[in-house]
Design a protein that fits this description.
The complex is a heterodimer of chains A (about 170) and B (about 280). Chain A is mainly alpha-helical and about 170 residues long. Chain A has a domain of about 120 residues. Chain A has 6 helices and no strands. The radius of gyration of chain A is 17 Å and the shape is globular. Chain B has 2 helices and 12 strands, in the order ααββββββββββββ. A 6-stranded antiparallel barrel of chain B has the order 1-2-5-4-3-12. In chain B, strands 6-7-8-11-10-9 form a 6-stranded antiparallel β-barrel. In chain B, strand 3 and strand 4 form a beta hairpin. The longest helix of chain B is centred in the first third of the chain and has 78 residues. Chain B is rod-shaped and about 160 Å long. The chains are: A mainly alpha (about 170), B alpha+beta (about 280). The interface between A and B is medium-sized, with 27 and 24 residues.
Chain lengths: ~170, ~280
Amino acid sequence: MTYFFHILVCFCMVVFHTTIAPYSSLFSGIYDLLIIFVIYLGFFRSVREGIPLVIFFGIVMDVFSGGVFGLHATAYFWLYICVLGLTLFMRKNNVLLLPVVALFGVIFENFVMVGITALLDTGSAIPESAVKIIVVQSVWAFFTGPILIMVFKYVDDKWEKFAKTREKEFA
Amino acid sequence: MFSRKMAMIVGAIILIAVNIIVLSVNSKRPAPSTGIGRFTISLVSPFQGIVSEAINSVKDIWKHYFLLVSVSKENAQLNRSLKQAEEKNNRLVEMELSHARLKRLFDFQGTLQKRVVAAEVIGRDPSPWFKTIIINKGSREGVERGMPVVIPEGIAGLVTDVARNYAKILLVIDQNNAVDALIQRTRARGIIKGEPSGRLMLQYVLRKHEIQVGDVVISSGLDGVFPKGIRIGFVREVNKPDSGIFQQLAVTPYADFEKLEEVLVVLDPPEQPELDDP
């Protein structure tokens, strides 16, 4: 049930990124929302649950993206590992930490995207607008990332409660 | 002498006669204004006025209440009608625009003389670093990997992935895409490559060619993917370095890839053209 819910969230975000955000001026500079979900998984869910989901999310995004296949999966996986590393010596519920982690996540993803593309294709150049894209995404992430993480946590907790009740009813 | 009864009858007759006489006399001249009349009028009239006003007010309220109810109903109905008309108008405007686009696409299809399938753009790349689109036609309609995708303005891209009902198109402006191209005026050959910024670069054009800003760039057909002669863009900037055998040209695509809504997938493979002498 929980996996189903997380996959549903992933599909909703992919649809948002591919059909809503490109046509709306409001979300024109928005960052990859799945980054925030990956951070959430790293902070609040078990590794057993997190790793398959993170790789799955990456593959789904890679299917819809024009980049090298595996680019998103790579970015999400290593970001997840970084977040896991952070949780070893930082408190998960530290609200002040969340904007910084969201910011780091967005910068990390863009770094991986541009870096790996440049490494694999020697002819490719970093676009002039790269700095602007990253700055806009970072601002978005800094302010909305923590809220989204809290929303994910709240909805996930509610969903888990609901799923447990249903399981008990069926048992 | 007279009985009491008789006296009463005579008295009544006299009274009636006097009354009639007085009335007939009064009817001949206006009644004189007396103090009693004025006083009575002054005393009663204010109350008359108040009561009359009150009655009129009640009447007005009553009348207006019903009027307002009907006006309010009418207003709600007119608002509904207006919204419906606006919605219909918007639908018609959208249909008109869609019709114009499809007509251009249809006219363009006629010039291609190849089997094509028209498709609608339903999604875009989730990453700002890459330029792909998702269309609503797939293998069921005969779309295959590697097929060229065109629009009336020129080349749009290349099919890179196909599902049963959908396909992914790598746009010509993506950095991973390359098209063999010609300068229409000079027939100079080069390779059009996309840039992450959404612009195009024409590379590997020999220095000896005199290229001017504004020259039209078309597909050469030599890449075995895109049909020959389809417009790509125009030269925006010529960069001739002091050394080297090639010059580099910045090209502005004719198509606005941000506003791409419908595309044509060319189903027939291109004929291999003979190489033009540069």
